[in-house]
C-alpha cells in the first residue's frame, strides 16, 4: 500500500559483533578505572588535595603538559576518589564542578556555566543579558548556599583568553568577603605553558599556588596504557601481537600522547571490522596512521589562507622535482611559491609574510623546520622538509580545490615516479 514500507523493511543498519567487545572504551570520554604510569603525578596531586580532607582551605592547583598526557583523566580520577573518601567524615562536605573552557571564551561565559552547573536543571539562567557583576553575585550566592569545600576544575583554561577576570575573582571570593560559607579550590589545566606567562602576576601567584607538570609518555608507558584499555575494548585473541607495540611506538615518536595511541588502536580496529577481517594486524595500524594523519592535516589546512595552501604546494613540488635537495632552504621554496602564485594570476606575498607561513606549517607539524648555523659569520638559517607522508600532503592539497592552473595530477604521478609514495 505505502511504497515506503519497502524501505522500512530493508535492513540498513545491523549491529556488528566482530572485533570489538566495547569500542567506547577507546573513546576520549571514557574514564579509566585505573591509571597507568602516573604514580608520581598522582602522588603529588594527592598531597596537594590533602588539605581538603583535613577540612582546611584547598590549594589552587595548576596542571600543565601537552595534549593526551592524562591531565584530564588523572584529575577526574582523583576528584572522584576525593569526593568518595570525604564521605567518611561527617564534618566534611566536598563537591567538585568540572568545566571544559573550550567553548567558554570569556569570564562571563565561564561564570554563567558555573552558575548553571551548580543550580538545578529547572533553575538555569540564560547565557546572555545579565551584567557580569550580576552573574558573579548569583555565583557567590549559589556557592555559599552549597557551602563546604567546592573544587572547580577549569580544563583547557587558556581558552578563556584575555577576558580572565574570573581567574582573579574566584580565588579571592572568600578573602574579598563575597562568600562566607564555602571554601573554593581552583584546579586549572592547560596544554599551553605560555598561558601562565600571559597572566597578571597577581592571578598567577594565586592560581598557580601548586603546580604539576605532566611529561609526554614514552613507548613503554603507552604500551601499558594501551594494553589495559585493549583488554576491555577488543574481543579475545583479536589483536595481533604487533599491534599494541606499533601503536605505542608511533604515538611515542610523535607527541607521546595516549590519546593518539588510543585513536590509532580504534581506527585500526575499525578498519579490520569494515573489511570483515578476523584479526587486527600491523598493516591495519599503518593504514590507520595514514588515515588519521590525513584527517589531522586536512583539519589544520582549513584554518590556513590560500597562501598557506600554496606554501605547502611549493614545498611538495620542490621536493618532488628534486628529492635529493631536501631539506630545502627558504629561498628555493619561495621561488617555487612565486611561480605557483603567478600561474594563478595573483601577487605573491613578500619574503617575511611567506616566512610566517612556513613557520605556521611547521607549528602545525606539517613541515619540519631545523635551524642551521653557517659557522663563523655565516648567520643562522632554517631548512625545511615535509613531516607528513607524501600521500597525506598531496591528497590534502587535492581536497582543497586549488586553482585548476595547478596540475596536481601530474604532481601525484611525479611523486610516484620518484618513489616518494
Ligand atoms: P589530556 O587531558 O592531558 O589531554 P587525557 O587525560 O584526556 O589527556 O588522556 C587522553 C586519553 O588517554 C584518555 O582516553 C585517557 O583516559 C587516556 N589516558 C591518559 N593517561 C592515562 C593513564 N595514565 N592511564 C590510563 N589511561 C590514560
Ligand atoms: Mg584534557
Automatic annotation (TrEMBL):
Q: Where is the AAA+ ATPase domain?
A: 57-218
Residues reported in the UniProt entry to bind ATP: 69-73, 217, 229
Instruction: Write out the entry's keywords from A to Z.
Output: ATP-binding, DNA replication, Nucleotide-binding
Give any single GO term for biological process.
Answer: DNA replication
Cdc6 C-terminal domain residues = 312-397
Q: Which InterPro entries match?
A: AAA+_ATPase (IPR003593), AAA_22 (IPR049945), Cdc6_C (IPR015163), Cdc6_lid (IPR055237), ORC1/CDC6 (IPR050311), Orc1/Cdc6_arc (IPR014277), P-loop_NTPase (IPR027417), WH-like_DNA-bd_sf (IPR036388)
One molecular function GO term is: ATP hydrolysis activity
**Protein family (similarity comment):** Belongs to the CDC6/cdc18 family.
Q: Which HAMAP family match?
A: ORC1_type_DNA_replic_protein
Functional description taken from the UniProt entry: Involved in regulation of DNA replication.
This chain's protein is named: ORC1-type DNA replication protein
This protein's species is Halalkalicoccus paucihalophilus
Quick one: which gene encodes this?
cdc6_10
Amino acid at each position: 500500500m505505502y511504497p515506503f514500507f519497502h524501505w522500512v523493511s530493508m535492513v540498513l543498519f545491523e549491529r556488528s559483533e566482530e572485533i570489538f567487545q566495547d569500542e567506547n572504551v577507546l573513546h576520549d570520554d571514557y574514564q579509566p578505572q585505573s591509571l597507568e604510569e602516573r604514580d608520581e603525578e598522582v602522588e603529588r596531586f594527592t598531597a596537594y588535595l590533602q588539605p581538603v580532607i583535613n577540612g582546611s582551605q584547598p590549594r589552587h592547583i595548576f596542571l600543565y603538559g601537552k595534549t593526551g598526557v592524562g591531565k584530564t583523566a588523572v584529575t577526574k580520577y582523583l576528584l572522584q576518589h576525593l569526593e568518595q573518601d570525604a564521605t567518611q567524615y561527617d564534618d566534611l562536605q566536598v563537591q567538585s564542578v568540572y568545566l571544559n573552557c573550550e567553548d567558554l571564551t570569556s569570564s562571563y561565559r565561564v561564570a554563567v556555566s558555573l552558575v548553571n552547573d551548580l543550580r538545578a536543571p529547572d533553575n538555569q539562567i540564560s547565557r546572555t543579558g545579565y551584567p557580569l557583576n550580576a552573574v558573579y553575585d548569583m555565583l557567590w550566592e549559589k556557592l555559599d548556599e552549597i557551602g563546604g569545600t567546592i573544587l572547580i576544575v577549569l580544563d583547557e583554561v587558556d581558552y578563556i583568553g584575555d577576558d580572565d577576570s574570573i581567574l582573579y575573582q574566584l580565588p579571592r571570593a572568600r578573602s574579598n568577603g563575597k562568600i562566607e560559607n564555602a571554601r573554593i579550590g581552583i584546579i586549572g589545566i592547560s596544554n599551553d605553558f605560555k598561558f601562565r606567562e600571559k597572566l597578571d602576576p597577581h592571578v598567577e601567584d594565586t592560581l598557580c599556588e601548586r603546580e604539576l607538570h605532566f611529561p609526554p609518555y614514552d613507548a613503554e608507558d603507552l604500551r601499558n596504557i594501551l594494553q589495559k584499555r585493549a583488554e576491555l575494548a577488543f574481543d579475545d585473541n583479536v589483536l595481533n601481537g604487533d599491534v599494541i607495540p606499533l601503536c605505542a611506538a608511533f604515538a611515542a615518536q610523535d607527541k607521546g600522547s595516549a590519546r593518539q595511541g588510543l585513536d590509532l588502536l580504534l581506527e585500526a580496529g575499525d578498519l579490520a571490522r569494515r573489511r570483515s577481517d578476523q584479526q587486527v594486524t600491523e598493516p591495519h595500524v599503518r593504514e590507520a596512521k595514514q588515515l588519521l594523519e590525513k584527517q589531522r592535516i586536512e583539519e589544520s589546512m582549513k584554518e590556513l589562507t590560500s597562501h598557506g595552501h600554496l606554501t605547502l604546494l611549493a614545498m611538495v613540488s620542490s621536493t618532488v622535482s628534486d628529492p635529493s635537495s631536501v631539506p630545502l632552504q627558504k629561498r628555493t621554496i619561495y621561488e617555487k611559491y612565486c611561480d605557483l602564485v603567478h600561474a594563478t594570476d595573483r601577487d605573491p606575498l613578500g619574503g617575511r609574510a611567506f616566512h610566517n607561513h612556513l613557520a605556521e606549517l611547521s607549528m602545525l607539524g606539517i613541515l619540519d623546520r631545523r635551524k642551521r648555523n653557517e659557522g663563523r659569520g655565516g648567520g643562522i638559517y632554517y631548512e625545511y622538509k615535509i613531516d607528513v607522508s607524501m600521500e597525506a600532503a598531496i591528497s590534502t592539497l587535492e581536497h582543497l580545490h586549488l586553482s585548476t592552473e595547478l596540475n596536481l595530477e601530474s604532481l601525484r604521478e611525479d611523486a610516484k615516479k620518484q618513489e616518494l609514495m
